[in-house]
């Protein structure tokens, strides 16, 4: 079974080698037919401590790394765009 990949924004980088990523999803409410926004926060492993608050990152499922971490940062889109522009 393939590993899930999600995209979100880093909201905290205070822990060593860990970032907290906020994933937001939108869906239509089944009864009210209104678009609803729902967000969830995931702790992801960042080996090099490269991600900063506000960065747009891609995270991928992995085997448990610690009690709360089950995701790994695979790409920092903000740094990739900065490298391309500079």
From TrEMBL:
<keyword id="KW-0689">Ribosomal protein</keyword>
<dbReference type="GO" id="GO:0006412">
    <property type="term" value="P:translation"/>
</dbReference>
<keyword id="KW-0694">RNA-binding</keyword>
<keyword id="KW-0687">Ribonucleoprotein</keyword>
<keyword id="KW-0699">rRNA-binding</keyword>
<comment type="function">
    <text>One of the primary rRNA binding proteins, it binds specifically to the 5'-end of 16S ribosomal RNA.</text>
</comment>
<dbReference type="GO" id="GO:0019843">
    <property type="term" value="F:rRNA binding"/>
</dbReference>
<protein>
    <recommendedName>
        <fullName>Small ribosomal subunit protein uS17</fullName>
    </recommendedName>
</protein>
<comment type="subunit">
    <text>Part of the 30S ribosomal subunit.</text>
</comment>
<dbReference type="InterPro" id="IPR019984">
    <property type="entry name" value="Ribosomal_uS17_bact/chlr"/>
</dbReference>
<dbReference type="InterPro" id="IPR000266">
    <property type="entry name" value="Ribosomal_uS17"/>
</dbReference>
<dbReference type="InterPro" id="IPR012340">
    <property type="entry name" value="NA-bd_OB-fold"/>
</dbReference>
<comment type="similarity">
    <text>Belongs to the universal ribosomal protein uS17 family.</text>
</comment>
<dbReference type="Pfam" id="PF00366">
    <property type="entry name" value="Ribosomal_S17"/>
</dbReference>
<dbReference type="GO" id="GO:0022627">
    <property type="term" value="C:cytosolic small ribosomal subunit"/>
</dbReference>
<dbReference type="GO" id="GO:0003735">
    <property type="term" value="F:structural constituent of ribosome"/>
</dbReference>
């Amino acid at each position: 079974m393939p590993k899930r990949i999600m995209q979100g924004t880093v909201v905290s980088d205070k822990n060593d080698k860990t970032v907290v990523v906020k994933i937001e999803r939108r869906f239509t409410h089944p009864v009210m037919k209104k678009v609803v926004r729902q967000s969830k926060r995931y702790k992801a492993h960042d080996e090099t401590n490269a991600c900063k608050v506000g960065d747009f990152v891609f995270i991928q499922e992995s085997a448990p790394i610690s009690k709360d971490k089950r995701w790994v940062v695979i790409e920092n889109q903000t740094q990739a765009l900065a490298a391309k522009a500079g």
